[in-house]
Amino acid sequence: YRFVDHNRMASLIPWNQIRSNTVNFFMRRTQGELWKTLTSVSKSGMKKGRKNTRQPIRNLQRFYRIGASPMKVQFPGLNSPLNFDEPVQAASPMNIVEQSEEELKERASKMRTDLESKTVKKRHNREKLHPLERGFSGTQIVGQKLGPPPPSDSAKFDDFESYCLEVKRTSNMTRVFGRVHTMSTLVITGNGRGLAGYAVGKAPLHRTSTAIVNAMKMASRKLFYVQLHEDRTIYQDFYAECRNTRVFAQRRPAGFGLTCHPRLQKVCEAIGIKDIYVKVEGSTKNYLALTHAFVTGLLNQETFQQVAERKGLHVVEMSPSRHFLPEKIASPIMATLKTEDELLPIDRLNLDDFYGEGRYPLKKPKPAPFYENLPSHLDAEWRKHPFRNHEQVMHRLLADDVVPRWTRDARRGWGARKSELAIAGVEPLVTGIGLSHIVPKKE
């Protein structure tokens, strides 16, 4: 203990006991060490993203000040100055100050004001992209255009465009370092005119950009060429598989577009395919197997001329745009044309069966609507039953030039002429609905 003269005493601080061997845990540790017990994360926890779940370090003195209270009590020597001119006995230990309504409102809203004025880290303003260029999920780099790959030696790829198809973290268990994590990316690059390449790039953990650049460099060194029909679609339907991924690709007419897996859409854009339908079965999330299967099917294609030379036959196409009339599109030049007697049973196979290897994509029937067996729906279907063939009749009458246009006047004129011919006996009388004035009813 320390004592001083009462006449010269200035405050009550000299009577406070000062101990250095305190047993209180919070008195022995500093503020930084105490906060570290709540906010520290191990190395393995940081890899698993546990750092974001820890609460941030807060400045408690900003919101809770020692000696402050809602009643605004003044403690001499603590939150108010001491008056050294007054004797010690006359000094008041504390004093309650009356507050106005404005001060009470200000004190009540002080906590909220402090929280609202909290400094927030400024986020980097991301470049706004067009919805068609944002990638597969929002602002992620997967699916976005990455530009041409870097030049290699004297080769430049100014007209190429690259797309990132996948970014994932892989791990490898080693004997010395334990589990080593790496970033793996799948990138495809192409010029949109049949020349493309894809590769997998790797880099250390959290180095996604480095992995993408490495993949772009490798893809530019592994280019392949795909010959396209009319520079927009494939030559024939094909089936391809890789691991548990099965791909059924079908060519489509001009203007159809790309109806396929989102990753295959980027692959088609890099290669230059504009019209195609692709059905993917099995594993749809193994993007490397999906890309490899699709590219393998493209490279195994045959042009119409190659098919004609290999088979020794004419290649004939029956398109729905020409009402399925046969059109010869290729003939053998170097090979000898086979006659009817020389044809084998395998030569009479349909090309769709041949290139699909006997496999067809699964087509699930649509589920029946809930109103299928309701009485009102069955009654409506029965009322439409007499008109079930009207659409086919319309197409046939227009195709045979019986009626110039499908209008009420043209149909009535055609019906009137038929009725006149039937009454005159030129054509046989048709018995049925609507002829009660000609055919007498049974009594």
TrEMBL record:
GO molecular function terms noted in the UniProt entry: RNA binding; structural constituent of ribosome
Keywords tagged on the record: Mitochondrion, Ribonucleoprotein, Ribosomal protein
GO cellular component, one term: mitochondrial small ribosomal subunit
Pfam families linked to this entry: Ribosomal_S5, Ribosomal_S5_C, Ribosomal_uS5m_N
Record localization: Mitochondrion
S5 DRBM domain location: 160-226
GO biological process terms, semicolon-separated: translation
The protein's assembly and partners: Component of the mitochondrial ribosome small subunit (28S) which comprises a 12S rRNA and about 30 distinct proteins.
Family: Belongs to the universal ribosomal protein uS5 family.
Protein name as it appears in the record: Small ribosomal subunit protein uS5m
